[in-house]
Amino acid sequence: MAAPSSLLRWWLLIVVIALSIHLGGFPLLDPDEGRNAEVGREMAATNDYVMPRLDGLPYLDKPIVYFASEAAAMEVLGPTEVAARLPAFLFTIAGAAFLWWFAKRVWGSDEAFIAAIVFLATPLAVAFSRTVIFDAALALFITMATAFFYLACEERARKWSALAWLAIGLGVITKGPVAIALPLLVAIPYAIWRKRFRALWSWGGLALFVLAVAPWVWAVSRVIPDFLHYVVVTETAQRLATKALKRTGPPWYFIPYLLAGALPWSIVLLGSPRAIDRRDRSTIYLLLWIAIPFIFFSISQSKRPQYILPLMAPVALLVARVWQNARIGARITAVVLLVFGLALVIAPPFLHLRAEYGDAARLSAMAIGITFVIGGALAFVRNRDIVLIALTIPIVAIPLAANPLMRAIGARRSEAALMEQIRPMVTPQTEIVGVEAFTGSMTFYLQRPIVVVTPDAEEFTSNYLIRHYANFAGGTSIKPMPWLDTALADAAKPRIFIVRANDAAHRASLAAHQLRIIASDARYVAYAR
Questions:
Q1: Which of 39, 248, 497, 521 could bridge to 527 as Cys pair (CB 3.0-4.6 Å)?
Q2: Degrees (nearest 5) of the Cα angle 488, 491, 496?
Q3: Among positive and negative, which fits the CA dihedral 486, 491, 494, 498?
């Protein structure tokens, strides 16, 4: 048998390879994946790496980093699902690499490999390493900033605070000002306790922060003068402090997501409270790193599961710190995996599930259940490295085991198949019209714009476009509702009209104008003459 450190080194490589499986194995899911991938596709197609656009319209709901990353990937790989998801995967791997470096610097090589493996074997990290949204990138920069602030306090070296502010700047142009709040909320109480508050600040750090943020903000503000106000007030302050965006939840909203999202390591930690040395400064910092952002998001008026993705890094570091003394927690976790795995293997045939997902859900549940049983059984051995590997197996196997279910979900939540039906009928002169109907996956898979007839622009799922509808209605991409009558009367122009399948009124209107159905799926129907 290989030496423990060698075993973990090879297992880390296997984990990285396993997480890359089926990265493009299912269509882009609407609304988020389709929309975000389309913004990246348009950025690559126009070679404009400054202004994000959706269907040719300014998309200012999120900053530039992820869009530019996927656009660069599409320049190389083409506009594919793999190219769209690859940046999230790479940001996640970079997060694991950074945790390895940080843990090795603070504690040693054993903790370094454990931290990297545990991080990659959390359900939240796995899920968002394969999703076309910004949170994997944001989590990386928040992790870097928070870790650098710890080093700044402990080593009193200005370079660490400077690097922290650079990471914060990159986080700001990834998902906005929340990247400023989270690292500082953790670092400031710790720095005050350590009487090293000034260690968090450096003029070099301010310069790096401005260098990271200002050029893009300035470039966009030249075109959209109210951009900064929109980002700070609407997309950040209102999201956190009000219910305006309708993303509320109870104060305990994140408790189940944290426990489930950090499985099986949440059980390991809860089952071994005595292994956590509360006198150790690094452990105290990790506990603050988990608790303060959790409280911050719990009292926020905007709640989504991915908001606590940045907590997976301190969870992984804390597991690495206590692992050698967490035998009781590991044994409890092994029992839970066995019981839960057996339930997943036995129960699916008896469950009444939605017909469109039923068979795929049962197959995926049984496959995941088998990995839980295998991992739980192997976790009873004495070798601590093998126990660690055993506990990662169920999570690392998710991309392979869950693929049947993800393909079934993709068939219902993506317009890839519908666009494939439409594509042979589209000529360069054909105008695609969405009648109160639009998803990002439509334009992504057609690789051409859609004229959207809408009273409010809600189809774009963009707060910016909804708030500025009046500015864009009547342009090339958005038309007010009366334009539809003009388009239907113009028989000379080749058009394909897409309408929601459950929109009886518009479907009747299209049929009354002698349009026929040329393609359909569960969500949308396409008409043409």
A1: 497
A2: 65
A3: positive
Closest to 391 in 3D by CA, of 265, 256, 274, 261: 265
Q: Give yes or no for a contact between 95 and 279, defined as CB atoms under 8 angstroms apart.
A: no
- The pLDDT tens digits for 237-280 are 566 555 555 567 888 999 999 999 999 999 999 999 999 998 89
For 264, phi then psi, to 5°, come to -85, 5
Closest CA to 27 of 37, 19, 13, 41: 37
Distance (Å, rounded) from C-alpha 249 to C-alpha 458?
A: 22
50-82: b or e for each residue (b if 16 or more CB lie within 10 Å)?
A: ebbbbbbbbbbbbbbbbbbbbbbbbeeeebbbb
Quote the CA–CA distance of 511 and 528 in Å, as a whole number.
10
pLDDT band at residue 382 using 50, 70 and 90 as cut-offs: confident
Q: Residue written as tokens 């359900």?
A: 123
Residue 524 has φ and ψ, to the nearest 5°, of -135, 155
Residue 290: other Cβ atoms inside 10 A: 23
Residue 4 has pLDDT above 80, yes or no: no
> What is the residue type of 516?
R
User: What six digits make up the tokens of 369?
Assistant: 């259940």
The type of residue at 450 is I
The DSSP bridge partners found for residue 58 are 53
CA distance 48 to 316: 38
Alpha carbon 182 to its chain centroid, in Å, reads 17
Distance CA 180, CA 169 (A): 8
Q: What are phi and psi of 38, to 5 degrees?
A: -65, -35
Phi, psi of 24 (to 5 degrees): -110, 25
Q: Which amino acid is at 412?
A: R
Tell me what percent of the chain is helix, strand and coil, each rounded to the nearest 5.
70, 5, 25
For 304-354, what is each residue's pLDDT tens digit?
999 999 999 999 999 999 999 999 999 999 999 999 999 999 987 777 767
Distance of CA 70 to the CA centre of its chain: 13
Say which residue the tokens 């080749």 belong to: 494
d(CA 245, CA 253): 17
Listed in order, strand segments (DSSP E) in 361-481 are 431-435, 451-453, 478-479
CB 131 within 8 A of CB 22: no
Token pair of 130 as six digits: 């394969």
Q: For the CA atoms of the chain, what is the radius of gyration?
A: 25
- Cβ atoms of 233 and 464 within 8 Å: the answer is no
Tell me if residue 91 falls in helix, strand or coil. Answer: helix
